[in-house]
Design a protein that fits this description.
The chain is of the alpha+beta class. The chain has two domains: about 120 residues, 2-Layer Sandwich (Yope Regulator, Chain: A); about 40 residues, no CATH class. The protein is built from four helices and six strands, in the order H-E-E-E-E-E-E-H-H-H. It has a six-stranded antiparallel β-sheet with strand order 1-2-3-6-5-4, with helices on both faces. The longest helix is centred in the N-terminal third of the chain and has 16 residues.
């Protein structure tokens, strides 16, 4: 897995030095780093931090090639936490991989440590099962049942748009 991380980082470092160099969407406090790369369903998934984005990256496994896709085509992957949309990325030195942009641009990320922290949280959350519908519905119904009773309406008569804009609802 270390060789895959090194290759991925090398390819994106080259992109950072060439195609992305000097672009205003790049954050000079960030550098290319792969975080939490692990095997999932015979593929490899991790978070890619770059000076211009934080993305999920999905790479082919030894026995699991990625489906060939057109440049604008999207593919959805179901992770335990939900469904995510990926786009294809074809780099000669890397081959085909798929990217799911999480934060772009990353101009408001203060430091590399902050970016890595976000990436680690993403990897942890990615594999947490999302709650099922019935549980959510039960929790929602319980919340409604325990809610305070609604007070009387503030506006006693119907308002026209003009009256609303004039503040007529404030008059007693």
């Amino acid at each position: 897995m270390d060789a895959v991380v090194e290759k991925l980082e090398a390819v994106f470092n080259d992109i950072a030095r060439t195609r992305m160099a000097g672009l205003p969407i790049c954050n000079p406090a960030l550098r290319v780093q792969v975080v939490g790369l692990r095997e999932w369903r015979k593929y490899q998934v991790g978070v890619l931090v770059t000076p211009w984005t934080i993305s999920l990256v999905l790479l082919a496994g030894a026995d699991a090639p990625l489906k060939a896709m057109q440049p604008e085509e999207k593919m959805y992957w179901d992770f335990p936490s939900g469904k995510y949309e990926f786009m294809v990325l074809n780099e000669a030195e890397l081959g085909t991989c798929q990217i799911c942009s999480l934060i772009s641009p990353v101009t408001n990320v203060a430091s590399q440590a902050d970016a890595v922290n976000v990436a680690e949280q993403v990897m942890a959350a990615l594999f947490v099962l999302k709650p099922t519908e019935p549980k959510q519905k039960i929790e929602h119904e319980a919340m409604l049942k325990n809610a305070l009773p609604m007070s009387e309406p503030v506006v006693k008569k119907p308002l026209s748009r003009r009256d609303f804009l004039r503040g007529a609802f404030l008059e007693k």
